[in-house]
């Protein structure tokens, strides 16, 4: 989880910095943080439309120019030809339902998260798919 927090420091999101690390057999496969796609101006440069419109966290994902940390970790695996099947995703914040669906289809078997995210559908999807979820407690 400490590595996921380190990766989150690369985030260019103005609202929330999130990091994700996907491991398998105790080896790091990919990492991701939330930020604009490659070659696209970051929110720090152009501002946050969701913030300007007062959109609450967990709503209207389509207005955000950033890609989520979990999505970036999955895309990095695809870009480099790395299978995530059977992997574990460590993420600093509980995935949203969009990320949960992608993690399910990538073959992730367990998600260990720290912070909560306001998306009730997430746990329903993960439970139905048989993906184990563990809330990280750093006490």
Report the helical percentage.
25-40%
SS class: alpha/beta
- Supply the number of helical segments: 6
Order of helices and strands: HEEHHHEHEHE
Q: Can you give the mean pLDDT?
A: 93
Beta content = 15-25%
The biggest beta sheet reads:
5 strands, mixed
Count of DSSP strands: 5
Q: Tell me the distance between the termini.
A: 13 Å
Oligomeric status:
single chain
Q: Pick out the low-confidence regions.
A: none
User: Within the largest sheet, what's the order of strands?
Assistant: 2-1-3-4-5
Coarse morphology: globular
Report the C-alpha radius of gyration, rounded: 14 Å
Task: Give structural notes.
The protein is an alpha/beta fold and 139 residues long. Helices cover 34% and strands 21% of the residues. The chain has 6 helices and 5 strands. The protein has a 5-stranded mixed β-sheet with strand order 2-1-3-4-5. The longest helix is centred in the middle third of the chain and has 12 residues. The model has no long low-confidence stretch (mean pLDDT 93).
